[in-house]
Amino acid sequence: MFDEPMFDRFGEVEQIKGRRAKRLGFELPVRCKHGLVRSTVMLKDLTTHGARIEGIPPQRIGESITLFLPGLSPKIAFVMWSETKTSGLEFELPLHENVFATLVADYAIGHLQRLELGRAAPARPDARPARHAA
Length: 134
Description:
Layout: E1 24-34, E2 37-46, E3 50-54, E4 64-68, E5 75-83, E6 86-91, H1 97-107
Antiparallel strand pairs: 1-2, 1-4, 2-3, 3-6, 4-5, 5-6
């Protein structure tokens, strides 16, 4: 079901029967717009196809919500289910695999490091310069 090579790297990802995509845990405050109201919500989990957010009253099924994920243009999503303070969203257009991998590497709870994605890890300010043998 998940033949994309990126998903092979997510060993601890929760898989739920019937889901289209693997879900990863987040604790990330993000801005959203629902109707005329803008607010900050907590992104609790994310897939390439949608997200679960907490922090807004119950929403109507099918209502559109705009999520402002870090580093991305606003993402339109639709409410698939909603309970007290928690809603499940489906993105209008799924996140590209590389965009999803970057969000995971930068913000997911206890997952990939930048180096594992083939990018250099950010420099630590307290790191000493490397010594090279002559």
